[in-house]
């Protein structure tokens, strides 16, 4: 057996041994590379970097510049709140980004956090230090975990908490909600003169205000009932009413659960019925000045909607001013300019009728008009007896209603004779004279006589 193996080793050339060894080495390397491949790098994850501003170095600052970038903050082990700052760099103003928007969304299960927003890191740190040193710090009811940002402004957001959370930069080139708000504002501006006089719109607006501002309206009724000044306890009641209204609005998702949905439905029904009764009792406004005030208020709200529907403030302000200017131009002037433009640039193609087409159309329209006249005279609305007393030939009128022609044979013969004589005279007298020439012609005819 040993002799056989020695023989094979001698017979096989050295190159074959080398190739086999290379294949084994290559397979081993591939196996090792698969087993020890380095972990993938997440390009969207941002790490904190030291931030130098106004000669002071700030720690735990994250720079988010592109869509989808995020930062993950680990939980604190010392059980103390820690401030982390997230900054966004603005982009240049552009009309093509009229409806663009940016936001930072925080993924944090609990509500144990504080948020500070400022134009730079220094201002955020100052706000955090001021809140810690203040003896009273109030929490607003409209706290949110999504922070709206202007794409055209530098902004920094500071989050202070001890829990783990993730914050992500979201960027929309076209925010469709902003598009809807802009178009709705423009439509409301132009339709305000019609909507303020519409009864259905009056009832729906009154019921909606009753549903949204029921607590404020109850406070107003209490003020009128007890005849109290605004600077008395009524002012505190108004503030508390606004607080409850805003807290309910910004936490509406929590009240739409199975635990509170029956209460929400009951509130909508009761407040809607009461609001409808009040609006029905008062009735729609009829005073022209009241209607004008409602129209101007609706147009003011629509202008605010247009201005606030875009972060591109110069463009949105220009759009609002354009709407106001166009509405201030008199309708007669706009109508005249529109007419001139149509005449110059959009001239209608007028088709002239031939003589045969003119005669055919005249005959058809005359026949149609005579039939309509007969039908009207036969109806009770025409008051035939009163009409007969005013006619010179009542018998002929009665024959016309019964179906006789509107012209007699004598009138047809007289018209035919006049038409024949007119054509004959026109054939012999084609010249056109002035008044003096006609007078001279008549004088020469008299002298010849």
Explain what this protein looks like in three dimensions.
This protein has 449 residues and is an alpha+beta fold. The chain has 17 helices and nine strands. It has helices at 2-11, 14-35, 121-133, 176-195, 199-212, 214-226, 233-250, 252-255, 261-282, 288-308, 313-328, 331-345, 355-378, 384-388, 394-402, 409-428, 435-448, and strands spanning 49-53, 56-64, 70-73, 82-88, 101-107, 114-118, 146-149, 155-161, 165-172. The strands form two sheets. Strands 1-2-4-8-6 form a five-stranded mixed beta sheet, covered by helices on one side. A four-stranded antiparallel beta sheet has the order 3-9-5-7, with no helix packed on it. A hairpin with a 2-residue loop joins strand 1 and strand 2. Helix 4 runs antiparallel to helix 10 and helix 10 (288-308) runs antiparallel to helix 11. The radius of gyration is 45 Å and the shape is elongated.
Which helices and strands occur, and which strands form pairs?
Elements: H1 2-11, H2 14-35, E1 49-53, E2 56-64, E3 70-73, E4 82-88, E5 101-107, E6 114-118, H3 121-133, E7 146-149, E8 155-161, E9 165-172, H4 176-195, H5 199-212, H6 214-226, H7 233-250, H8 252-255, H9 261-282, H10 288-308, H11 313-328, H12 331-345, H13 355-378, H14 384-388, H15 394-402, H16 409-428, H17 435-448
Parallel strand pairs: 2-4
Antiparallel strand pairs: 1-2, 3-9, 4-8, 5-7, 5-9, 6-8
Instruction: Spell out the helices and strands N to C.
Output: HHEEEEEEHEEEHHHHHHHHHHHHHH
Gap between N and C termini: 166 Å
Mean pLDDT, as a whole number? 78
The count of helical stretches stands at: 17
Radius of gyration based on Cα positions: 45 Å
- The helix content is 55-70%
Strand coverage percent:
5-15%
């Amino acid at each position: 057996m040993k002799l056989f193996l020695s023989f094979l080793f001698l017979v096989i050339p050295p190159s074959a041994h080398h190739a086999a060894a290379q294949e084994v080495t290559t397979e081993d390397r591939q196996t090792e590379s698969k087993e020890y491949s380095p972990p993938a790098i997440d390009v969207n994850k941002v790490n904190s970097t030291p931030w130098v501003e106004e000669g002071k170095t700030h720690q735990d600052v994250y720079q988010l510049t592109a869509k989808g970038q995020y930062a993950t903050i680990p939980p604190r082990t010392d059980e103390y709140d820690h401030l982390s700052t997230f900054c966004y760099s603005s982009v240049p103003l552009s009309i093509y980004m009229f409806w663009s928007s940016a936001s930072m969304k925080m993924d944090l299960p609990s509500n144990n956090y504080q948020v500070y927003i400022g134009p730079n890191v220094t201002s955020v740190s100052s706000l955090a230090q001021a809140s810690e040193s203040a003896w009273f710090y109030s929490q607003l009811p409209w706290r949110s975990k999504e922070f709206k940002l202007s794409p055209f402004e530098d902004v920094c957001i500071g989050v202070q908490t001890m829990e783990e959370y993730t914050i992500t930069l979201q960027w929309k080139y076209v925010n469709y909600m902003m598009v809807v708000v802009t178009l709705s504002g423009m439509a409301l501006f132009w339709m305000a003169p019609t909507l303020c006089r519409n009864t259905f719109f009056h009832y729906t607006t009154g019921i909606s205000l009753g549903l949204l501002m029921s607590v404020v309206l109850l406070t107003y009724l209490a003020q009128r009932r007890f005849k109290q000044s605004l600077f008395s306890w009524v002012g505190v009641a108004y503030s508390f009413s606004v607080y409850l209204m805003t807290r309910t609005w910004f936490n509406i998702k929590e009240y739409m659960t199975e635990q509170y949905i029956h209460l929400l439905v009951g509130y909508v029904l009761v407040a809607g019925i009461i609001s409808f009764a009040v609006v029905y009792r008062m009735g729609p406004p009829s005073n022209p000045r009241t209607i004008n005030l409602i129209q101007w208020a609706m147009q003011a709200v629509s202008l605010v909607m247009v201005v606030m529907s875009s972060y591109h403030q110069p463009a949105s302000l220009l759009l609002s001013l354009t709407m106001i200017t166009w509405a201030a131009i008199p309708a007669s002037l706009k109508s005249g300019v529109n007419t001139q433009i149509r005449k110059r640039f959009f001239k209608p193609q007028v088709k002239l009728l031939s003589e045969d087409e003119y005669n055919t159309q005249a005959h058809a329209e005359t026949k149609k008009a005579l039939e309509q006249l007969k039908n009207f005279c036969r109806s009770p609305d025409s008051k035939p007896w009163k009409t007969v007393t005013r006619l010179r030939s009542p018998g002929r009128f009665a024959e016309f209603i019964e179906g006789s022609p509107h012209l007699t044979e004598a009138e047809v013969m007289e018209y035919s004779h006049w038409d024949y004589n007119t054509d004959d005279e026109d054939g012999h007298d084609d010249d056109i004279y002035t008044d003096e020439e006609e007078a001279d012609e008549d004088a020469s005819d008299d002298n010849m006589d």
